[in-house]
Structure formats: C-alpha cells, structure tokens
Fold these 2 entries.
Entry 1:
Amino acid sequence: AAQPFDYESHLKNRYIQSTSLKIAIIGFGNFGQFLSKTFLRHHTLLAHSRTNYADLANHLGVSFYADPHDLFEQHPDVVVLSTSILSTETLLQKLPFQRLRRNTLFVDVLSVKEFPRNLFLKYLPPDFDILCTHPMFGPESGKTSWAGLPFVYDKVRIGDEESRIKRCDKFLDIFEKEGCRMVEMSCMEHDKYAAGSQFVTHTMGRVLEKFGLESSPINTKGYETLLNLVENTKGDSFDLYYGLFMYNQNALEQLERLDMAFESIKKDLFGRLHQVYRKQLFGDNNGEVEKKRSLAQQLLGNGSLTEPPLDNVRQDGS
Ligand code: NAP
C-alpha cells in the first residue's frame, strides 16, 4: 500500500536532484548568510569562511567547512565568492582550485564588477565558467522580498556545452524566481552606473549618519526617506564602502562632484544673504535698518562666511 507514495517521493527527489545545484559559498559573513537563506529553498548549500561559522551554518542547514580543501573536495557545481572586495585577490591566490571539478562555475557577488572580472580571468583555470553578478540589494533592502530589486549579471565566460549553459541559467533562475529585475550588462557599464548611484547613496547615508539624524514627532515623508537611507547603509561594513571607492575607478570623480555640488549650494545660500545685507546697508533707509542689519550679522556669524570685505563695500557703494 505504501508503494505509490514511495514511488512519488522517489520521483520528487529525483526531480529535485535534477533541478538543484550544489552551491559553495566562500565568505559566510553578512551578505553570504543573507543569500544562503534564499538559495537553500531549492539548492544544497556548503560554505567556507575565514571565521568559523559552523554552529550558525548548521542551524541554517548549510554544511560548513573550515578548510577550503575539504569544501572543494565536495565538488560543488557552483562556487559563489561573497568575500570583501578588499580581500578578493589574496583569497583567490590561496584557493585550491585543483580540488574542484574541471568545469566548475565561478560566480561573484561583489559590489564592483570590473575588478573581480579581471581577477577571475587572471587566476581561475581556463576551463572554469565565469559569471559576474551584483545583487543590488542587501539584508536591509531585501529583508522581506527580492521582488522588483535589480540583479545585474555578466556572463563573462560560459562554455558552449548545453550542461554549462543550463547550470548558469539554473543559478540565474534563483533570482528570477524571486522576482528580481534581471539586468544583463557588461561589468564596465555596471561600474559606470554604480558609481553614480550606489556609491553616492552609500556616501550620503554615511554623511547623514555622521551628521546624527534623529527621528522626531513631526517627521515628514522626505525626512523619513533620509532616516531609511541611514538605516539601509549603516549595516554595511566600512570595508565594503571603501571597496566601492577603491575598486571602482569612477568613484573618485563622483565624490568630487558631490563636494562641488555641496559647495555650490552653500555659495547660493550665502550669496543671497550677502545681497540682503548689502541692500540694508546701502539701499534701505527706513528705521528698521539697524534691526535687520543685526539679524543679518547674526546669520552670517552662524554660517562660515564673515562680513563682506571693506573693498567690496566701497565698490558697491560707489
Ligand atoms: P564585507 O565586509 O564586504 O565582506 C565580509 C566578508 O568578507 C566576510 O565573509 C568575511 O569573512 C570576508 N573577509 C573579509 N576580509 C577577509 C580576509 N582578509 N580573508 C578572507 N575573508 C575575508 O561585507 P558583506 O556585506 O558580507 O559583503 C560581502 C560581499 O558582498 C562584498 O563583496 C560586497 O561588495 C558584496 N555585496 C554586499 C551587499 C550588502 O548589502 N551587504 C550587497 C551586494 C553585494 P569572515 O566573516 O569569515 O571574517
């Protein structure tokens, strides 16, 4: 009587095995753990990290290997690199690739793309497939759902064989099935766009965090957006932020543009304040002049500008 059930479950297991991947995550920190919770729904997960996360991994249902040799001897179909941008090169130089199967798929999820792409092409054996990706969300922004969140990928090197193409598609399917907005673009294009959006977002989040934004009983919608921005970026490590700056060649230009924009806004504000001050000094002769003048002086005293130099006053007055 139990036969039909056994047969069904046998078929189900075979189906799961044929559609599931054995995925090894290297770097089981903040982002590695976050990804693994979703990967686990359809795939078998293994992990390795500098820190020993054995208990935590065990709790999640991930097999943890303290030694990368042991991990690679399990012959995963896919190896996902989720380590800090800064440690990538040193790590790649130490990994025992010879223990993996010859046609393993290597994936990275780093927030910069040209850098890992070039390192993969330099250090990985030529038989390995390479998929560079950037899930453009994290434990905060993707806490409840990944639906509609952008996932950028570049199939840098995928062999022609059907099995290799399918394996890569199966991996991409994880994000597609979660409803991510799938964006295929080159690593170079990604870095250009990301410097103007992601790096600027992180910078503003960090500036506002240092500034010390606090919630108040009369928060406006705009202010709530700023508070959310700080919340979204403050969980990320400084290593991550520094990596965005160091390893995206467009980041420095964006930082300088931000600096210039801030200076320009300040100039607009203080420039207008000077005009008011001058008008009151030379153009307005009603009895309120003294009062307004002292108000302008007070405001100028609080800002970074001092009173206009005497030369200017003379020129304007002549
Ligand atoms: P992270 O600070 O960028 O990286 C932490 C991870 O790197 C940990 O697994 C850590 O291992 C490992 N690591 C750091 N230094 C190492 C070293 N010298 N040798 C070996 N491993 C080292 O923070 P993260 O948020 O977990 O990000 C991981 C990767 O995902 C980064 O490349 C990041 O750009 C990318 N990413 C992050 C997000 C996000 O929202 N957080 C989103 C998209 C992509 P241990 O924990 O074992 O020390």
Entry 2:
Amino acid sequence: MAVQRLSALCDVTGPARRPAYEPADHGTGIVHLGLGAFHRAHQAVATDDALAAHGGNWRIVPVSLRSREASEALNAQNGLYTLIERGPGGISGRVVGAISHGIGADPAATLKALRDPAIRIVTLTVTEKGYGIDRATHGPDWNHDAVAADRKAPDAPVGVLGLLTAAIKARRDAGSVPLTILSCDNLPENGALLRAGVVGFARALDEDLARFIESEITFPSSMVDRITPAATAQTLAEAERLTGCTDLAAIETEPFTQWVIEDRFPNGRPYWEAGGAIFVENVAPYERMKLTMLNGTHSMLAYAGFLSGHAYVRDVMGDPVLAALVERHLKAAALEVGDLPGIDLSAYAGDLAERFRNPAIAHATYQIAMDGTEKLPQRIFAPALCALRAGRDLSTYAFATAAWTRYALGTDEAGNAYSLRDPKENLIVARLADAERNAGSIMTALLALPGFAPQELTVDPNWRAAVESRLAAMLTHGMTEAVRREAAA
Ligand code: CS2
C-alpha cells in the first residue's frame, strides 16, 4: 500500500511528537525570508514551542526568494514537516506546526505578504550573500544584482533591501503597524548591518522614508546556532519511520540549539523563551563568540578537511592530527572573544568539539566550504586582526587562510575539479588565470579581492609570510603532509 503524504496531524501514526496545539487555530504574524533547512530547524521550532506554551497569532509565512521547491513541498503538506534530532544517544522526531502557506520565487506575492497588516515581524536567513550589503561601508552594494534591479524598479522589488523598503513604505502609507526586522544570519551585528543597508537603500529613493525607518523600525540583532546538514534520502526515510507518512520537507539537526536576541519588539513577539531563546541588551559579544569560535573553526576544518579527503566534520574530528588543529583554533579564537560574563569559554570550546564529533550528524565539509569570500572576513580575518594588534600568535588564522586559498584553486589533489559555490567564483577564476603558479602570486591575487581581507592585515609582513609559507607547503607536499607539519610545529 502506498504511504500517505503528511498533511494533517491526525495522519501521524509513528512515534514523532506532535504539536501541543492546533495549527489552524493560530493566524500568521511573521514573514520569514529564506526557507532553508536552517529556518526549519531553528526559528520555526522555537515558534512552535512558543505557540504551544503561550499561543498567539504567530505562525510563519515562509518565503523562498529564488526557488519554488521548498515551499511547494511544504504547501503540499499544509506546512507540516518532521524535525529529526540526531544525537550520539539516539534519534527523536517531532512534527512542527508553526509554518503556514509558503511562497516560492514570487516577489509580488512576497511583497503582498509583507504588507499584510497582521504581520508584525520579518525574520531572515538569506545567507551572507543574500543581503546585498557592502560590508566595508555598511550601505547597499549597488553592484549586487538584486540591489541594482530594485534601485531601477523600486515598486516591483525582488531582493531583500528592495522588498523590505517597499513593504515599510506601503505599511507606513496604509497606517499599519511598523515591522520589526530580525536578521538570523551569521553576520556580525546583523541587526545594525541590515538597518544600515535598508536605510541606505531607502535614502537613495526617498529621504523622508529613510528618516521614518531610522525612527520607527527596529532591527534587533540575534545570534543563532544549530548545526543543520542538508537533508538526504536517509532523512526522508527516517521521517517516514517516525511519522508513518511520506514527508518531502523533513530535515535533521543536532539536539543543541541556541538563540540570543535583543529584545526590541515594540509590536509584540512570540514567547520564544519557550524554545530556549535568551533575550539580552546587546548580542554583539555572543555573536563574536559564535562567529570566531564555532564558525571560524568550522571554516578552517572544512577547507583543510575537504582537501585531506574528509567528507564530513565528524571524520575530520576522527583524524587526530586535524582534531589537534581544531583544538588549537578554538583556544586561539577564545582569546579574541574577550570577557563574556557568565560564559566559560573553555567549556564552550569543549562543547563545540563534542558537537563537531557527533557521530549521528553527517555535516559535509563541502557544505561549509561554500561562500568562503562571504565568511572569512568575520570568521578568520576579524580575530586575526585582533590577534595582530595584540601581538598574539597568528598561526591558526594564517593556516585557515592558506587552506581557503588552496581550496580556491578549484581542484583537489587527485586533480578532480569542484565548483567553489562562491559569489566571487568568476572573479577568483579570472585572477588565478593571470597569476603565476606559486604561493606568493596566488596569495597576492586572491587576498586582494575587493572587500575581502582588511588591508591592515594583508600589508603586514608577518601575516604575509605566515600565509605564504603554509600555502607553499600545501602546494608542494599536499594537504595531509601540510596538516601534519602544522600540528608538529
Ligand atoms: C557553518 C554554519 O555552513 C557553515 O558555514 O559554519 O552553517 C554552522 O553550522 C551554523 O552556523 C551552526 O549554527
């Protein structure tokens, strides 16, 4: 007999936990931009807990800006999906009911949803490159495709800055409650950055609107954390076992979850505390901790691990030489975080290593390796610059940078080509075509990519020598040997 598709809570026959509320009893209050796996493993789950604990009209209208796949899979299931938590101790499943009817690759429908007076919050996980914000100026990146298109046609926006600006304007003109806009991406001071981007975009169109945004719209920052690998056929098979239904929107994640948010929601918010969210005055130190320790170590181990032939983070952790470099990176990064009252950074580092080792999670090094030019600035260069200024050891940052540079060559040691999946991929290829095949020239070509590495770092002779010697070792001896030498140094 064919297995039924998940589409109502009463369909669930397996051991998966069901929401402790009736989804249809709750209206929508949030539009979420960026319907990836991470949203379904994190904010949607905290909202599910909040609805169960405190109710409210806070279900989520999820939007995929560019593709239809995820929203179609969810819409066919009335927004229901299975979240599978995989820990070293076992597997559990729950069906999440917080998501309402989704929108895929339809900017006009997205703007309509954003204008709906019932909506009070917009949350975003559009990845670092999705914003179209210039990280050096914090203003709009006018060369970003969507930003450029929206500047030309601001009434029919397709990108993040254009959509938010048009929605804010329409809501102001209609007298609807102002939105609270909550970025949930791995960017430093993500709220302040997004605010600067939206205000800058609006200012280019209409000074009054820019001033309205500055005075009426809040952009709390938030730090989000949950390791969420891409779903596989095994995820879907597991979801079927847990629910008794076919679920094409199922995802899997680790048991750990963390969300630290600035509490600036003048028009209300879900009781996210029920899902473990912590509300603080200033998120910046928590973001710095997570970006430099978790994400920085992730990037370092992804490039070195991928080129050493390790497909998953857990395999990198199973390699004692690389695991020692992971430990070194965590220790060094902790020095650049500074004091965080109530947080023991060495315990945090130990917990991170434990999470990376989780044998039940297959987190691909190739997944983490993508978008390196968007990730390295806050993950590697920012703590490296702090270390440089403080006269501390730069080794682990130089190693991570050399590993990315080697990865950017686009072929592994067996000569297999791979796509970098980076917004600057074409530029990288063009620069490499003009560079000589030696460590010095490759490094000069890549580290001078516009808006990538801070000049104070790239002109420093110690930094240059530290990166160049490591890249030379990787090119001459291969990654495995370079890793061995690094750990022995
Ligand atoms: C990872 C993150 O893919 C990556 O770059 O470093 O997605 C990481 O898994 C999450 O930030 C964990 O919260």
